[in-house]
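Q&A log
Question type: sequence-to-structure
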Amino acid sequence: MAKEQLDRTTPDLFSDEKRPGRPKTSLLNRKTQLKINKRNQLKRDKQRGLKRIELKLPQDHVELLDELAKQYSINRSELVIRLLTKQFLSQEKP
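Response status: OK
Response body:
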């Protein structure tokens, strides 16, 4: 029987063939890898003095922030920091 390249119904014929895809570089499953990566990201943020906050905004405000951030070539977080800083620096102290 000849080996047909497109025939995948006989997996034993293709067991030695390398298939394209993401190479497995870690012995851990994806869920565990994501958990470790998130923990490491939180550690890096803490070392940089960053604190995570959650903020709920209307969708149109988020879209506006995204547009402004794109115009200034910064991320949304940096834009919010700049806007808050500018607002508080321009106010007179009571």
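Response note: The chain is about 50% helix and 0% strand.
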